[in-house]
Amino acid sequence: MGMIYPRGGKCLKAALQAADDGYITPILIGHKVEIESTARAANQDVIKHKIIEAENLKFAIVNAIEMAKAGDVDFLLKGCVDTTELVNVLIGKESGFLSKGKTLSHIGIMQTPKYHKLMFVTDSAVNASPKPTDTIGIVQNASSLASLMGIEQPKAALLAAVEAIYPAIPVTMEEAAIAKMSDRGQIKGCFIDGPLSFDVAIDAEVAHSKGITNSKVAGDTDIFVCPSMETADGVYKAMVMYAKAEAAGIIFGGAVPVASTYAVDPIAHIFNSIVLAAYVTLH
Amino acid sequence: MGTEIKNQAIMSSDQIIEQAQEISRKGKRKMVAVAGASDVDVLSALSSANADGILDATLFGDRDKIKKCAVEGDVDISKFDIVHNGNVSAATYEAVKMAAEGHANVIMKGFVSTSGLLKTVLSHDFNLKTKNLVSHSAVLDIPGYHKLLAMTDGGMVVRPDLEQKIQIMENAALVIRALGIKPVKVALSGAVDFVHENIPQTIECRKMVERVEAMDLDDIVIQGPLTFDAATSKEMASLKGVEGPVAGEADIYLVNSIEECNIIAKALINFADTVFAGVITGAKVPVSLVSRTDTMKNKKASVSIACLVAEYYKSLGDMGGEL
Can you state the angle between helices A32-41 and A9-20, rounded to 10 degrees? Predict the structure, then answer.
């Protein structure tokens, strides 16, 4: 595992814990002096781990991507650094991290006591205002991840404020079109329905009361596809901060998976993300 | 500003309901005009709120249908006057007229379409339109957040532009002021906490902050973009290097689309035990609406907050102020 710029004790602790537990062999990519002082401050020992010198975040990201493409690392971990800066380099053409025609997206895998299955919340980090092509890529990434985790034909809800389709609300038109593509077999590997409101997506009774009776997704959603980055980010943060959700985060669709969490996430979530990325890499 | 009543800031949904009761006890009980009252959810919310001493209501609509609804839902409506009109638009018109003439303080949506009701409210026949559009504020009581948070707009404007966002902000600020909170702290939603030249939404935030600051409103503090965590947690904000007066203290979370508001609010309501009170502001009379899927607590909080807003409007009027 290549750890990009292990700034911040939380991320380093999670990575070293995963190493101690035998899940991964970390390579720390960043400013050596800074890594060592971070480690000291967090009461961690990095002496037995390989450090690749990179004088700043930008160089660390570029190095990490080169190592990923060369197969020197199986997946990456975002250290406690700004997601936007990392994502900008990952999606930049010159990095070669993202193949042509592929979509890069973040998926938050969440477990909350009040829902009967895992929630895949997407995309809170990469696509600011997804166009239909992006949304399809976002669904496919989440669907691939869910399949790798053993969820056959996951159910994706394209979320909106309403279930009805209105020409005056562009999101509903786009989502309905994607759902239709799914019905016609143009998007494989998952069930897709939309537009669906959040309560219809999670609650079959509400779905029924709103007249959504023949949906394969409503009430039993695995993948929660949000119409904007702010929405997905808000849902993720709301779930972690106020709904006692346990989480893991992963940026998917590129040359290798990138375990990626937020400041709001405790060490356990970073650890979850590392183990998940390691698991996905093996399958 | 009605200081004998609003002597302290309201911080929870329970306090919203208690304050509405308090207003009522002081002889300022609010009258709610219900447009199309043959709606069992609306009747049960009003009946329960009436029993709690929060409000009175006048029911406009088809008398037989209203009575049938009450029987089916086992709701006691004996305390309410019914103004019979079998025609829905005519009943709506009469309900709005009652409010426009000052005999009702809140307009409530019953078994009529929201757009039809609002069209009537804003029609030239009545003097209820303000310079602003109308928008919906979902006032959320989130366990774990130390104050109420008005998320807006999740009901009216699909994708507000800058001008519309300013009006939505002003409408939500009325609701926050009605809760006795000053200054009003406004967070502009973003997926990141800083302006990035390649994320257009963050540039919009910067423009809005500049515009609002130039308006020189003495009781509004604005900051954005702010992620949901930075807006509602000082600890998260400082972890991310975000400073500013609104970080961790937002009263209003102003979002970018109807979907954003609706989806985040529903995540909180369904998974984080959040109680919500919704109200439409932007007209000279607050408009209340409840939905089938609301819990009784949500419904009661919604009609109560409409009463608080009505009381606040009245206090502004008493001072010769204007909306």
Answer: 80
Dihedral Cα B288, B27, B10, B50, nearest 10 deg: -50
Residue of B253, B255, B271 to mutate for A, most A C-beta atoms under 10 A: B271
User: How deeply is B199 buried, as exposed, middle or buried, from its count of CB atoms within 10 A (0-12, 13-18, 19+)?
Assistant: buried
The token duo for B64 is: 């037989």
Residue B232's CB is within 10 A of a number of other CB atoms, namely: 27
DSSP state of A169: S
- Evaluate the CA torsion angle A61, A66, A70, A72 in order and state its sign: negative
Which of B64, B68, B67, B106 is closest to B85 using CA atoms? B64
Q: What is the nearest CA distance from B24 to chain A, expressed in angstroms?
A: 34
Separation CA B281–CA B128 (nearest Å): 11
What are the two backbone dihedrals, phi and then psi, of residue B293, each rounded to the nearest 5 degrees? Answer: -85, -5
What is the per-residue pLDDT across B12-35, written as a single tens digit (0 to 9) for each? 999 999 999 999 999 999 999 999
Give me the total of CB pairs closer than 8 Å, taking one residue from chain A and one from chain B: 131
Q: Are A195 and A157 in contact (CB under 8 A)?
A: no
Count Cβ atoms below 10 Å from residue B273 Cβ, excluding itself. Answer: 15
Q: Of B155, B196, B263, which has the smallest distance from its Cβ to A231's Cβ?
A: B263
Which residues from chain A sit within 8 angstroms of residue B148, using beta carbons?
A: none
Tens digits of residue pLDDT in B126-173: 999 999 999 999 999 999 999 999 999 998 999 999 999 999 999 999
Q: Where are the alpha helices (DSSP H) in chain B?
A: 13-23, 40-51, 63-72, 88-100, 114-121, 162-178, 200-215, 228-232, 234-239, 258-271, 296-318
Interface of A with B in 243-272 (CB under 8 A): 243, 245, 262-264
